[in-house]
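Chapter summary example.
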Amino acid sequence: MAAITCERRTYTDKSYGHIHSYAQLVLPVKGILSVTVNTAVFDDNCQNVIFIPPESYHSFHSHTNNQFLVLDIPPMYLPQSTRPVPECQLLDERWKAVRTLLAQEVKDTPVANSRLTDLFRYILRLLEQESCPASIRYIHDQYYRDITLQQLADIEHYQLSYYCEWFQKHFRVSPMEYIRRLRLENARRLLEDSEHTILQIAQQVGYRQQSTLTRLFQDYAGVTPAAYRNKNRIKAKYNQ
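The structure predicted for these 240 residues follows.
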């Protein structure tokens, strides 16, 4: 993919998880959409704009009649100075104006043109204006270390109890659950893409013992790390 494209999409009640090398921006036109991006869960998304970074495992599903404008964004259009993370912004007047402009460009078929590229420069400024919370960036950078709730609360300058409530409200999971899912998601990628032993992978994502990763990964993926790796290798060999 060499150009930014935009099209109208609809989603069913069947959730299909996938990953790709480009970013996406999802703007609601009508209906309600539930979105999961790595460890972040954005439910009942009818008044929010969702940014999905490149190489992020994500899924969509909807139980209503729906339509969304979706931009597919090659990595070359994203700033290299920051590490992109999933982001959710309120569909305010600025984003509604963007939606109107996109709707004028996109009818029944995907669109890729210079006007779309110019508009994305403005979209990028909107994304940067409301950056991801500092504690989330810290988690994504340091997830493999021992992180305490107090550390995270201090980063946001919140009382511990308020931080936990704030986090649960915004991300629909507790901070510790968010970290656990992030570790397991990175373990999944290492199982697919590396030749490291399962013990080495466990230690790289923050677990001292292989047995800890095995137990948590089985709860997360339904299979052990070894079984997941073998299944993925068989699938890759079959697709060659």
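To summarize the output: The chain has nine helices and eight strands.
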